[in-house]
Amino acid sequence: MTAAVASAAEWRLPDRGRVAIAALIVAETAIFTIFVAAYLYYVGKSLGGPTPREVLHLPVLISILLWSSSVTIHLAVRALRAARLRSFTLWWFATVALGALFLAGTGLEWYRLIFHEGLTIRTNLFGTTYYSLVGLHASHVIVGLVMLTTVFAFALGGRVKEEHAVRTEVLSLYWHFVDAVWVVVFLVVYVVGR
Amino acid sequence: MATVDPSFAAPVPAPARISVPGRLHEWVVSVDHKRLGLMYIASGLLFFVVAGLEATVMRIQLAVPENHFVSPQVFNQMMTLHGTTMVFFVGMPILLGFANYLVPLMIGARDMAYPRLNAFSFWMSLFGGLLLYSSFLAAEGLFGGSSAPDVGWFAYAPLTSLTFSRGNATDYWNLALLVSGVGSIGTAINLIATTLCLRCRGMTLGKMPLFVWLNFVVSCLILVAISPLTAAQIMLLLDRFLGAHFFDTQAGGSALLWQHFFWIFGHPEVYVLMLPGFAFVSEIVPVFSRKVIFGYPIMVAATVAIGFISLSVWAHHMFVVGMAPAANTFFAVSTMIISVPTGIKIFNWLATMWGGKIRFAPPMLFCIAFLFQFLCAGLTGIMLACAPFDWQLSDSYFVVAHFHYVLVGSLLFTIFAAIYYWFPKATGRMLDETLGRWHFWLLVIGFNMTFLPQHFAGFAGMPRRIYTYEPGRGFEIWNQVSSAGVIFQAAAVACFLVNVIHSLLRGERAGSDPWDAWTLEWATSSPPPAYNFEELPEVRSRRPLWDLKHPDDPDWRFE
Fold first, then answer.
1. What is the 3-state secondary structure (H, E, C) of chain A?
2. pTM listed for this prediction
3. Nearest residue, CB atoms, A30 vs list B189, B224, B254
4. Which residue in B168, B215, B373, B496 has the most C-beta neighbors within 10 A?
5. What confidence tens digit (pLDDT) does each residue in A77-104 have?
6. Where are the domains of chain B?
7. Closest CA to B128 of B93, B177, B185
């Protein structure tokens, strides 16, 4: 090619990690949209009980736990960018703990619904849509927790350094997405759907 | 033919002798975008032959009325496998393979953004196809159900419920598509990241080749089109294995919801398949007309418009379901609107050819036939977009004819154009031109013989998906001509396969730039080295090789 350089201006392109996670989030959003659409379509169409109003309680506590984990992971990434490694490890651990508590809360709710209220995925349309939508979200929480825990293990071993800030940020974007989905699920399942 | 000696073409080292298992191992563990691209295309061509044979079985069965060549059950299996295979394991892999091979080369990059994700995606896609066909061996299950999926490629509820689909054949269909869908989404993410993050110096978005632009839009569409199918298939899995009731009408579930979800995927999917075809044409027509593409910015805008509008046309597959008049009107209008950007593209290709010095080499021949046949497909598409017209002809052979003009007359022709055009780049050898002409003309004759009469069979009232028909209804002549056309198509494909094998062994050496083209892939050697470019290129216009060959009259002065 001609040796003449078009311009001395620097050639900068976006970071591939951020772009790819954004694309993944778009795809995941499409999947959740279909499940939410199915949920809303079947609200009130169950042929038998139990109904959402009878058995669902607002999961205020676990929701607050999950949403606060967005704050803690943000603080963790910020600490890593500033090379405050100890602070990073602590905030990261807080995120893992909050996520795990949320998951435990969902587990308790399912236990109550299955064994005390007799609601399973085959009971009625409410059970079908409820367990699949909340379960789809919970499976994303599990995937997130596995990744977060892996990073945490690396951090304990002293392997996470300042130069990994962008990578942890990419992971945090996924986690923010999982939390944002819970806002939608919360509204659809526990507010509108009830 | 101008010879170029680009400074960043790599010297070709003499290939070392490697044993056959060693070479196989090299390919299996490869993360090189070029090898993965070729494996994508090769697997697609393999399934193309299989799905073509399935179509042949159907055409033999339908050649005469009340035929007993195959049983109704086998006919349904052939129909299901033909559709599923052609869309998911022929169309998608070949098109993603071309994107994989060409996008990094065209933007002057060394590989995709995520080479290992790339390999993962390819193998997922291939294993999806193998999973679909392993249903023949394993899907009988304990219940004595059919041995291959027979629910149609659309798998409408309640056909897929446990009551009507016993055994595991439907599950094989479901899981095969789920697995390959994950692969497609992975490749789409990869292509988006590659396009946005790895362009060489100077290649702004407005200087990207149209091929890259169109595949970028396709990747975005895959994200929002394949994912809904994945979601719906997860629901079907829950229905079949855990007893959920999404599509179970006995428990208040809705069969209609599956149709909506399927076509929310299904119609954008048509554009996921067609836009790469447009991408091939947008690269080939200018080179063989010796002119710059007409209206580059409008082509990009039309592509993006098609991408958006294609998300809002899905229910035109469902006019006969009995939707509300408002919904019918909306989907009829949006379907007609999408023909506007598509029409713009046709006019731009014509304007590119207008006054050009056209070379009628095989790639260009296929592109020209594409223009005619795609126009037919578009016109019958607009006819079917009118809801009242569709009420008459939905589920008839007219619809079969329409979408085969899209997927065979248009897409397959552009795929062959692309193979003739880029084969020299990938292998270093030219495809034989005489055999190429035989291939082209046999395919034009065979294709039109097979699918043109199906329009008339549809007008005569022949429903699609039937395994046989009574004599005396006016269907015979159309079906006989249609089946006879298969002979020509098979001969065409045979010419093509012979050509590929012959040219791989004895083809004329191509050199790095046999077509005197202008995009970056022609600047490196044929086949390109693993690292693509010895020195990463830098571009100043949309036709970097033109600038290189004509330093006195470079494009960047005028762009």
1. CCCCCCCCCCCCCCCHHHHHHHHHHHHHHHHHHHHHHHHHHCCCCCCCCCCHHHHCCCCHHHHHHHHHHHHHHHHHHHHHHCCCHHHHHHHHHHHHHHHHHHHHHHHHHHHHHHHHCCCCCCCCHHHHHHHHHHHHHHHHHHHHHHHHHHHHHHHHCCCCCHHHHHHHHHHHHHHHHHHHHHHHHHHHHHHHCC
2. 0.94
3. B224
4. B215
5. 999 999 999 999 999 999 999 999 999 9
6. 33-557
7. B177
What is the dihedral sign for C-alpha B208, B210, B215, B221? positive
Complete domains list, chain A, with CATH: 57-192 (1.20.120.80)
Rounded CA separation B203/B55 (Å) = 44
- Confidence grade of residue B137 (pLDDT, cut at 50, 70, 90): confident
From chain B, the residues in CB contact with A132 under 8 A are: 234-235, 238, 244, 246
Residue type, B471: P
B213/B207 Cα distance (integer angstroms)? 10
Task: Place domain B33-557 in its CATH homologous superfamily.
Answer: Cytochrome c oxidase-like, subunit I domain (1.20.210.10)
Report the residue of A1, A33, A121 to disrupt the B interface, i.e. the one with the largest count of B CBs within 10 Å. A1
Considering only the beta carbons, identify the residue of A30, A38, A122 that sits closest to B235: A38
What number is the ipTM of this complex? 0.94
From the list A15, A30, A128, the residue facing B228 with the nearest CB is A30
